[in-house]
Design a protein that fits this description.
Layout: E1 5-9, E2 16-21, E3 30-38, E4 50-51, E5 63-65, E6 71-74, H1 75-83, E7 87-90, H2 95-107
Antiparallel strand pairs: 1-2, 1-7, 2-3, 3-5, 3-6, 4-5
Length: 122
Amino acid sequence: MKGNTFGRQDDDGDNFHLRFVISDPDVDNRVLVVHMTTFKGNGREDTSCILNTGEHPSIKNKSYIRYDNALELTMTEILKDKLAGLVTVNKDISSQLLKKIQNGAQTSYALPKKYFKYFELF
């Protein structure tokens, strides 16, 4: 549910990212999921939500939320991936960090408009 985190390999198999469930389920039991990646300071990053070391045990260096790669998943899909060994469950995020990521979603230029419907489920 909202505030849950899990690690998952990208579909291309190149990277493993921490993902955050940032909404309650919609009527179809789908949630909005975003992930973080390392901030490199190359000017191409979305700075709507910068994560700092210590904000969550899995944040080891300055990172940012990739709202452009947001996705909708059902909790059933996440559970199936967990049972298949594709997902590792991590510690839930704090309410403060959840709010920070949600606020970033609402101000990000990169979040696809089709996900704006989740704002009412924050």
